[in-house]
Amino acid sequence: MNKKALILIPCTGVHRDITDAIWKGRTTLASDRLQTLPLMKCLKKNGYDLQVLSYNIRYTFKEIEKISQPDICFIGKMRHDKTTENGDQFCQFHLNVVLNIKRKGAKIACMYSDNICEYADQGGEMYKNLLYLSDLVITPSKKMKEHALKRVASQTRVITITDPQLFEEQPFKRLLPNQICRLIWFGNDKNIEYLQDILPPLTKNSNANMNYVLTVLASTNALNAFKYQMTKSLPQSKHWTLRFVPWDANRQPEQLVKELGNSHISLIPSNPKDPLKNGVSHNRLTDSIQHGCISIASPMDSYMELNKVCLIGKDFSLLLQKAVQENKRLCRKYEILRPAFLERFKPENNLLSWTKALEMLEKGFY
Asked: Which of 41, 134, 181, 295 could be disulfide-bonded to 288 (CB atoms 3.0-4.6 Å)?
């Protein structure tokens, strides 16, 4: 009889088996493509019968009883929609699921991608318990591993598996004389505040002899809030045009690929002092580099590992000037260096990492 693996990933409003949906790319979270799907491929390759379950409506003991006991349970991204879901019920239910499965003998592996333990809410408390209960914790960066090590039990192992590069390599786009410089920012709602911080000085200090178009690719709610904020703080400039593109969850990654492909420069601001952010994955930066964008990023730990193929710093105005003035040199340099620096993000290397993690769970850590 084949070994059994269970992956728990709650999707908002979805209460069913979503195994087939993830295989076919019908779910909307980036983590499904970057973490869950590669894990599923690894489990299938190693002879596991696997099931991916989303519990997001009924939080009863009868639901727990329906679960077929696995040999290994992987915990995906555990987030609930605070506007529509009962956080207490959500967190208590999923903790009970994991406790029940572990008590019956399953090994527990938790994917810890955001430092949610820093939140003073139910989600933070849930993750503190999930990390403590886990036999193995998997993080996407070394800094996130440091955060996780503070929360786990003495016998728990913590490893890092970087998110894989999912796209084909594209040439870096050269800026031609008198051409409009096309920039892009993309990300989730919580990160757009960093774009709001850098944009006023960026527009003020940019080269007045060049025209810029900045594409902001985000959810409709984030775009509306951003527009409202920018009308109050953004200086008027005839050289800058803001282009707002609503994130279409049903057209990913195709939409992202198209927008990155049309951009010369990618802006990735953040805050390295924020413990909720400083363990960030490499994926926004590697996606930008792979698509041939000169990338300007804040000095996050994971981004610093790639500082030979992007521009890292706090002064985005200065870095934008450099990206424009030295465009041809940087494009040539990055095209030469990119293969070596992105080698470890290749899907085949990611699969090897998942295979090693699976072996650790099957054979023990000693």
From this structure: 295
Per-residue pLDDT tens over the stretch 107-150:
999 999 999 999 889 999 999 999 999 999 999 999 999 999 99
Name the nearest CA neighbour of 132 among 113, 114, 104, 112: 112
DSSP of 23-42, one letter per residue?
HTT----HHIIIIIHHHHHH
Which residue in 326, 278, 322, 321 sits closest to 298, CA to CA? 278
Sheet with 157-160: list strands edge to edge: 16-17, 48-54, 3-8, 72-75, 107-111, 136-139, 157-160
Give residue-wise pLDDT tens across range 220-248.
999 999 998 887 777 777 899 999 999 98
Alpha carbon distances (Å) from 221 to 224, 227, 256, 267: 5, 10, 18, 20
- d(Cα 183, Cα 203) in Å, to the nearest integer? 12
Distance in angstroms (rounded) separating the CA atoms of residues 48 and 249 = 30
Sign of CA dihedral 67, 68, 69, 72: negative
